[in-house]
Amino acid sequence: MSEVKVDTISERTTDAGVTIEGVKVEDGVATFQTAAGSPLVFEGATADAFETTFAITDPTADRTITFPDESITLSGGGGLLGLVVYTGDGTYTKGGTSNGTAGDEGNASVTKVIVEVQGGGGSGNREDASDRDNCAGGAGGYAKKFLDVSSITSSVITVGSGGAAVSSSAGNDGGISSWNDSAGGGSLTITCNPGIGGNNTSYVGANGGTAVNGDINIQGGVGSYNFPAQAGGSILGNAGVSLLNSALTGGKGYGSGGGSGRSTTSGAGAPGIILIWEYA
Known about the structure:
The protein contains no helices and 17 strands. It has strands spanning 18-20, 23-26, 29-32, 40-42, 52-54, 80-86, 90-93, 112-118, 142-148, 154-158, 177-180, 189-192, 211-212, 216-218, 243-244, 261-262, 273-279. Strand 11 (177-180) and strand 12 (189-192) form a beta hairpin. The two termini are 46 Å apart.
């Protein structure tokens, strides 16, 4: 094997640069040109059969990739990592793989999340004597929030229940759903209030729940009065329907209100839910 030892290799002709097997160096700028488009290959600490190769697609115009003035670690894959679903209370642990209601969700590479919080829906009332006193349940509030979770370790998850159906009198409110990361190093609480149960007051509907601290906050739909009363719809569910002599009036999906009952049990409100979309 030949060996050349020099301190400086200078260009012979001004502005011509110096080229060594496809690598041109001119004015401190190195230009790599290879037919394969993979001019950079790194062996790593161990000399073996495995290397890391930087592959370059043949450019059709000048391109620039700029590295910031900071230390960075590149994550493999990038983009969406997966979805964590809570249909009941729990604790979300950043980077954990045993999150979610089923305890088998989550990705260790997560750095950012989109959180969707849906409050529980209220149930409708039951009123057999007067149409005007029938009132369907309101829907729970909904919030959506983008979060950088690099500074938090966990968040307490609360999922509101749907208001229980009734065989007489006023309906039941749903339950509050929330994300609270204050115990895990954060300072954010996203709260989605429940839909109100159908009441027995003439000409008064049941309010939908409000939402706070999301990037998007949407109040749940209002449950209307007067038979057949229309329940409040939610972002993640369809409203229950008020029917005569039928029990099929509950809220569908998540967070929607239940229909009112006429000579039958009212419709239950749909439960809340929390969705956590994880990103690298």
